[in-house]
Amino acid sequence: MSDPIKLDENTEFRISLKSLILIIFALVSGSWYVFNTQHKIQELTYNNMLLADKIKDLKQNPVLKTDVEMLKKDLTIIKSDSHTH
């Protein structure tokens, strides 16, 4: 059986420049992926909160709900008018 490797401050370590560049590239790519994923999750969470607040407002405020229904009717009328011309 082989002896265990002993490491101290005098231990030398050699690596090719190509391997070092590949390791650095992998670390940077991994870090970018994690950052990008976390940012997207935060963005989606924030958008979800905004939509939940809007839905809550629509449910609590019947005037807004009526306005939305009126706008839908107006849009339907406009679409039907544009198809007839």
Secondary-structure blueprint:
Layout (H helix, E strand, L loop, with lengths): L16 H44 L1 H23 L1
Helix pairs in contact: 1-2
Descriptors for this entry?
elongated; 79% helix; 85 residues; 2 helices; mainly alpha; 0% strand
Would you kindly provide a written description of the structure presented here, covering whatever features stand out?
It is built from two helices and no strands. It is mostly helical. It has one domain (18-84). Helix 1 (17-60) packs across helix 2 (62-84). The radius of gyration is 30 Å and the shape is elongated. The mean pLDDT is 85.
How many strand units? 0
- The outline comes out as elongated
SSE-based structural type: mainly alpha
Strand content: under 5%
Q: Rg, please? A: 30 Å
- Share of helix among residues? over 70%
**Intertermini distance:** 91 Å
Mean pLDDT: 85
* Series of H and E elements: HH
Taking pLDDT < 50 over at least 5 consecutive residues as the criterion, the unreliable ranges are: none
| Number of separate helices | 2
Outline the biggest β-sheet: none
Number of domains as seen in the coordinates: 1
Give the structure's gist in a few sentences.
By secondary structure, the chain is mainly alpha-helical.
